[in-house]
């Protein structure tokens, strides 16, 4: 099912040491000031916490306690109240703690708010269920399973306890075969529609232990053999909250974007709005919001933002809309760590991990094959299939196409298309590492080299025990002595210090350099280097120190002046897709125009249609 926890949650669970960017400290100081003295500055809290990604919010929560010796959630609990206070406390803790808080509040007092419990526990991966249990115990000193067992009853209790105590197994193609899917479809039928009454436990066990791809196969076989879907079987065999919980699970597995759009709408439908349910949905599924928002607008002919604006009010509304609009990725992630742009499938292939198979990926492969079959190529069909895919989905399609048709997708498209459209199509028809190799190869092919396509450089990983302040000062001095502090430039040591420095270390080096030598490293590069060497070093330093601003300017530079550099533009959009939410936001701030509109005005034809589809594609897979 969905992994919704940001990387820091997994790292804390694994007891890995976290590193904090100076911007995180700045956010903590602003929160401290907003709550200091008599009264609370709610607008300042909205301004600081609202626009942060889930990862940034988690880092702020961890860091605040280190800096001020107090839990951020406890501080905000004492400073705010009502629906606004509830939402603020949800985003003032790492996501596992936010979910623990939702469940705890749902069980507090007389009775339980079941509709807040099952969305949290249904359809969780084993890893994230383990993290949730640990977070719950650490926060409330209670075992999650024991508390839910005490609070719930009837069929809902059976459903929830099965999900908590025996969550789903990972998909394994050698175990989750068609024969296993048929066997499970038969077990569901025999436990439900095939008998008088319902044998709840085996029915529930089959469902909650099935990973999405297997469940899709089970559902297909169930449809064919028993003339209705598993969803219909649930509706006929269960009632009340148990039915709602199982439907939540199966629809989340089979049609996630459509279902989550409906789930969010259900919190606002009818008389009054369920502010807690709405807040929980927006905060929990933030990583998947691009797909949810798109599906919502398609279903309800209105943007989710406008709907929320009309149904809520005051500080709660302002904060919720800020959270809704916040980027999926951390604006600081590129500075605190390496710039990781490869999706999970690329890392898995490198580690020789078997790639999973998904019906949606097979369907995309079939549609590409059909679009290129026979005389002529259906470019519009290729745009429709490949354009809206996330980087990870594109990688999986490329791997799967070769398996199915014994031909490289890139080679097929190269023979079928040409020009800038063909170049872009080939970039997105391969996993991202191959796309970068393709960019480099083409930059060096033929007479001369296109240096501006080659700039990105490798760097070492940040290590807090090595990259200490003394090391930063030492490197600042080495840069000065190799550059501005001598006659001429000693290029090799200057370059070596720069390109071996991870972003967080470089940030500290630059800070010290400015204090000691009265200008930044950027100015030093501009004075000591020229031509493409200067451009490549500035690319590196600005990407480390001000990534969103620099990438927005870099993309603009490919369209500025006479003519557009289509290859440079295509490469930038494809390579930095994972960071597009922050780039688009910054671009609009810098140029008072959306990046989409700018591209639309500077490009044309199939190239434009495909590039805009890629630009609008989700950063994470919408569904599998």
From TrEMBL:
Keywords: Annexin, Calcium, Calcium/phospholipid-binding, Repeat. SUPFAM superfamilies: Annexin (SSF47874). It comes from the Eukaryota. Transmembrane segments: none annotated. The keyword Coiled coil does not apply. SMART domains: ANX. One of its GO terms (cellular component) is plasma membrane. One of its GO terms (molecular function) is calcium-dependent phospholipid binding. The keyword Calcium applies. PROSITE patterns: ANNEXIN_2. PANTHER family: ANNEXIN, ANNEXIN B11. Belongs to the annexin family. This is Annexin.
């Amino acid at each position: 099912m969905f992994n919704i926890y940001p990387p820091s949650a997994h790292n804390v669970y694994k007891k890995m040491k976290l590193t904090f960017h100076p911007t995180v400290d700045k956010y903590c100081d602003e929160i401290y000031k907003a709550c200091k003295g008599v009264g609370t500055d709610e607008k300042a809290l909205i301004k600081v916490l609202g626009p942060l990604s889930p990862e940034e919010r988690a880092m702020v929560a961890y860091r605040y306690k280190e800096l001020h010796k107090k839990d951020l959630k406890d501080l905000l609990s004492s400073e705010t109240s009502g629906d606004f206070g509830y939402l603020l406390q949800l985003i003032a803790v790492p996501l596992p703690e936010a979910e623990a808080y939702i469940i705890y509040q749902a069980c507090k007092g007389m009775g339980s708010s079941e509709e807040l419990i099952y969305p949290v526990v249904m359809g969780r991966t084993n890893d994230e269920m383990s993290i949730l249990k640990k977070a719950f115990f650490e926060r409330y000193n209670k075992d999650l399973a024991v508390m839910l067992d005490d609070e719930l009853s009837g069929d809902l209790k059976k459903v929830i306890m099965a999900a908590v105590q025996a969550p789903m197994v990972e998909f394994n193609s050698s175990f989750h075969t068609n024969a296993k899917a048929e066997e499970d479809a038969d077990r569901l039928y025999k436990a439900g529609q095939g008998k008088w009454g319902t044998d709840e436990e085996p029915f529930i066990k089959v469902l909650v232990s099935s990973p999405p791809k297997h469940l899709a196969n089970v559902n297909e076989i169930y449809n064919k053999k028993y003339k209705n879907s598993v969803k219909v079987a649930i509706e006929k065999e269960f009632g009340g909250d148990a039915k709602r919980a199982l439907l939540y699970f199966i629809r989340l597995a089979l049609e996630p974007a459509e279902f989550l759009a409906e789930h969010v709408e259900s919190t606002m439908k009818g008389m009054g709005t369920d502010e807690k349910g709405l807040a929980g949905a927006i905060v929990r599924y933030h990583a998947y919001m691009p797909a949810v928002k798109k599906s919502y607008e398609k279903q309800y002919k209105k943007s989710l933002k406008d709907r929320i604006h009309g149904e809520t009010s005051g500080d709660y509304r302002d904060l919720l809309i800020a959270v809704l609009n916040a980027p999926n990725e951390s604006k600081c992630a590129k500075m605190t760590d390496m710039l990781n742009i490869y999706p999970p499938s690329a890392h898995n292939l490198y580690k020789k991990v078997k790639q999973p198979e998904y019906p949606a990926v097979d369907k995309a492969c079939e549609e590409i094959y059909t679009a290129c079959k026979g005389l002529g190529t259906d470019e519009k069909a290729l745009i429709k299939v490949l354009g809206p895919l996330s980087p990870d989905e594109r990688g999986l399609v490329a791997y799967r196409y070769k398996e199915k048709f014994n031909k490289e997708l890139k080679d097929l498209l190269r023979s079928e298309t040409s020009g800038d459209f063909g170049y872009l199509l080939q970039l997105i028809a391969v996993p991202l590492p191959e796309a970068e190799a393709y960019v480099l190869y083409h930059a060096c092919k033929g007479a001369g080299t296109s240096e501006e396509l080659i700039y990105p450089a490798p760097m070492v990983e940040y290590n807090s025990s090595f990259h200490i302040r003394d090391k930063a000062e030492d490197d600042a001095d080495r840069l000065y002595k190799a550059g501005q502090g001598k006659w001429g430039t000693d290029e090799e040591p200057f370059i070596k210090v720069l390109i071996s420095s991870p972003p967080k270390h470089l940030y500290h080096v630059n800070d010290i350099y400015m204090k000691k030598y009265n200008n930044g490293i950027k100015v030093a590069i501009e004075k000591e280097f020229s031509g493409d060497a200067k451009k490549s070093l500035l690319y590196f330093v600005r990407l480390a120190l001000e990534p969103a601003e620099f990438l927005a300017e870099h993309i603009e530079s490919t369209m500025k002046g006479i003519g557009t550099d289509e290859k440079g533009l295509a490469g930038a959009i494809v390579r930095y897709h994972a960071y597009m939410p922050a780039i688009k936001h910054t671009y609009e701030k810098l140029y008072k125009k959306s990046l989409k509109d700018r591209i639309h005005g500077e490009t044309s034809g199939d190239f434009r249609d495909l590039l805009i589809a890629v630009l609008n594609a989700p950063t994470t897979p919408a569904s599998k």
